[in-house]
């Protein structure tokens, strides 16, 4: 499994022309996914078949795991995009599940519905999690060490990082969390792409 760091996202103007959108996005299928698109489950449901006509076939589309929304919405959106010929990349926010078992069930539900090989693994924010009694750890390293992603057929997992400290964490705390993710994934055959310079020994 490959662990990669996502460095940026591109937002397109609402009236971005179809031809412009195709030219901009076409590099994603041939040039190491330099450009990707993020669509919420509600946007995908509302747009329907328009997505197929706006985006090139094979386009990587990230699907956010939003607060206070059931993960079934992400699963439905993932299936719909795959049926349109896109490459869906569902988000997985670990703190939005009460337990590891609940998160594992969500992963199994996803992979029973559709074969998906990529995901974006994030921690999510405690203050917006549906359950205040979540036992999940403070970062997504629990998922890296548990091999849950690998057992469910994922071949690559993206991990994002905030440039600024969050929730009272210092910059050192944030960098240490990144180091832990990299160290925990490497012994199990994973590799890190685009490693931040701050993490170099």
UniProtKB/TrEMBL annotation:
Keywords of the record: Oxidoreductase
Record organism: Rhodosorus marinus
GO molecular function: oxidoreductase activity
Gene3D superfamilies, A to Z: 3.20.20.220
Lineage: Eukaryota, Rhodophyta, Stylonematophyceae, Stylonematales, Stylonemataceae
Protein name, per record: Methylenetetrahydrofolate reductase (NAD(P)H)
Region (Disordered): 161-201
Basic and acidic residues composition-biased segments: 169-182
UniProt key word Membrane: no
């Amino acid at each position: 499994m490959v662990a990669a760091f996502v460095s940026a996202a591109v937002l397109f103007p609402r009236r971005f022309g179809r031809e412009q959108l195709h030219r901009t996005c076409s590099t994603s299928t041939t040039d190491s996914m330099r450009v990707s698109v993020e669509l919420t489950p509600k946007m995908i449901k509302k747009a329907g078949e328009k997505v197929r006509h706006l985006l090139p076939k094979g386009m990587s589309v990230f699907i956010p795991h939003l607060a206070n929304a059931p993960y079934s919405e992400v699963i439905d959106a993932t299936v719909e995009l795959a049926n349109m010929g896109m490459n869906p990349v569902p988000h997985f926010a670990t703190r939005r599940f009460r337990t590891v078992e609940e998160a594992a069930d969500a992963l199994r539900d996803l992979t029973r519905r559709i074969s998906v090989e990529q995901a974006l693994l994030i921690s999510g924010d405690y203050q917006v999690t549906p359950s205040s009694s979540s036992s999940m750890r403070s970062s997504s390293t629990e998922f890296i060490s548990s091999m849950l992603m690998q057992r469910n057929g994922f071949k690559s997992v993206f991990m994002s990082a905030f440039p600024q400290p969050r929730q009272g964490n210092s910059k050192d705390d944030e960098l240490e969390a990144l180091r832990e993710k990299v160290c925990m994934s490497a012994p199990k055959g994973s590799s890190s792409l685009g490693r931040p310079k701050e993490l170099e020994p």
